[in-house]
Design goal:
There is one protein chain. With 78 residues, this protein is mainly α. Helix content is 64%, strand content 0%. It is built from 2 helices and no strands. The chain starts with a helix and ends with a helix.
Length: 78
């Protein structure tokens, strides 16, 4: 019985230690500042926000490949 309690205690200590490390890691990420503005002459009249990459064609390809994979799995089951 003594060994079982010791194993549970070690497990609890390791879980709490992991949670503390993860908490500290996430707190430090909020301390970062905003990036500096782009240098002059970067080709745009103002600061263009990110996220202008086209996603539609890549998303269609991924969905088609996923559908083919699922279809193959269903075909193999039958």
């Amino acid at each position: 019985m003594e060994d079982k309690n010791m194993k549970n205690t070690r497990k609890n200590i390791s879980i709490v230690s992991l949670l503390i490390v993860l908490l500290i890691a996430t707190i430090n990420t909020h301390a970062q500042t905003d990036p500096p503005p782009p240098p002059g002459g970067h080709g745009e009249s103002g600061d263009v926000p990110g996220g202008g990459a086209p996603l539609a064609s890549g998303l269609v390809i991924l969905m088609a490949l996923g559908g083919a994979y699922v279809g193959k799995k269903i075909y193999d089951i039958k």
